[in-house]
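Hi there, hope your week has been kind to you so far. For a while now I've been wondering how a particular protein folds. I'm sending you its amino acid sequence along with the backbone structure tokens. Could you read through the record and tell me how the tokens relate to the sequence? Take your time with it, there's no hurry, and the full record follows here.
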Amino acid sequence: DIAILVVAADDSVMPQTIESISHAKAAGVPIIVAINKIDKHDADPQKVRSELLRHEVFVESMGGEVLDVEVSATKGTNLDKLLEAILLQAEILDLKAN
């Protein structure tokens, strides 16, 4: 299993984000962070990454091991990169579909 944590770049880390992180960690599943809404004028992906650090989610772009991808779901921006990240993580974990 892999958890995809979707965090809005304009809202950043919210209580439900923290709850989702806790569930993923309790289940022992790796997390991929999708920083969404990067097309919005008040988007701040770096703030999201910094706030995730406070909750022990260390993304690759800040020296950690958690994959993170900046996306815009409404515009379709970087959805291919998100899929690549999921496939890469699945390959590393040797996950197979039933």
The two ends are 12 Å apart (CA to CA). The first strand starts at residue 3 and ends at 8. Strands lie at 3-8, 31-36, 67-70. The chain has a mean pLDDT of 95.
